[in-house]
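If your schedule permits, I should be very grateful for your opinion on a structural question. The matter concerns a single protein, recorded as an amino acid sequence and a row of backbone structure tokens. Could you please explain, in whatever detail you think fit, how the structure tokens follow from the sequence? I set the record out below, with my sincere thanks for your time.

——
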Amino acid sequence: MKYLDNGNSRDITFNLALEEYVVRNLDPDDEGYLLLYENEPAVVMGKHQNPLLETNQDFIDEYGISVSRRISGGGTVYHDEKNLNFSYITKFDNRKIHNFAEFTRPITAFLEKIGIESSLDDRSNILVKGLKISGNAQFSNTKHMISHGTLLLDWNLEMLRGTLKVENPGIIKTHAVRSIPSSVTNIAEHLSMDMKYEEFKEGVKNEILSGRNEGMVELSEEEIEKVKTLANEKYLNWDWVYGRTPPFELKFGDKMLINNFSVKKFELHLENEQLLRNFGIKIV
């Protein structure tokens, strides 16, 4: 397995674009690629989710937190610099679809080495003492697949609660996938030693690549520019971040709002008007 260099980028849109570029354009060998990265504060939705149900837009605006959508399913997550993201990009293998144990086994082995007993639950989360430290999701096409997840080393839990806490906005009908709330904990709280982030990251990397390290891959300048273009044209684009939201209906009193984005003007009262503006809706 080759280690994929992301140039130490902490830009969520670049890192999501890098995953997609690699899975769609490079030809992984039998062992594939490993990507490890962290992001500046960001909220990342699953492909089939509705931000009205998942995020606190007022809090996000106040703290300047990035929002994007990934190509895999699953729930909405908060990222920051103390959350390690791991991504396997491999050839498609039907035996590995939804087989998260295949990809998380080296991680739980590393956790055991540093004195933490963990397990994988039926929702593909890694748990420590019944609390979530990692969520996982997958994307696949007919040729390649991504299996990626988070590792909460020393998350800012207050920022997590602030970004993902949202009151019911009145959505009464939607096919969007809802996140399932989980009680979370930081890995650092269960360590008997002081472990810096870079040391933790290196340990995870070495455990995953143990016995099958085939070196590091660096993208060419031309490939990096293509990743940046994908980030700008997709992961920073309203059409993907908000327009990709599955159809839904909102009811406010005797008014009904349907997310037909050609309709721009409604009369309604809502505390969080900014998120509706993100949908191109004018508040009057």
In short: The mean pLDDT is 87. The longest strand covers residues 83-91.
